[in-house]
Amino acid sequence: MPKIRIQDERLTRAAAAHGDHTNYAIAKRTGLSQDTVGRLRKGAAAPSATSLVTLAQTYGIPMEELVENQTAEVAAPVKDPA
To answer: For the chain, what is the radius of gyration of the CA atoms?
Structure first.
């Protein structure tokens, strides 16, 4: 899964405030493809810088509220038993 994801709930609220209740409506307003919008909302694709800026500007969402940054867990180094 991508490490950076769209906050779907935040996007859904902002889009609905503009009358956009479907991926099609979001795609039509933003110029992104419907497939891209769907993949971003499901978390199946990491957003590009362009798509983030487009969504943020279109719906008036600050970028930091639009993205969810998932930090990767880092395993502790394995000590050599010798």
So the answer is: 16
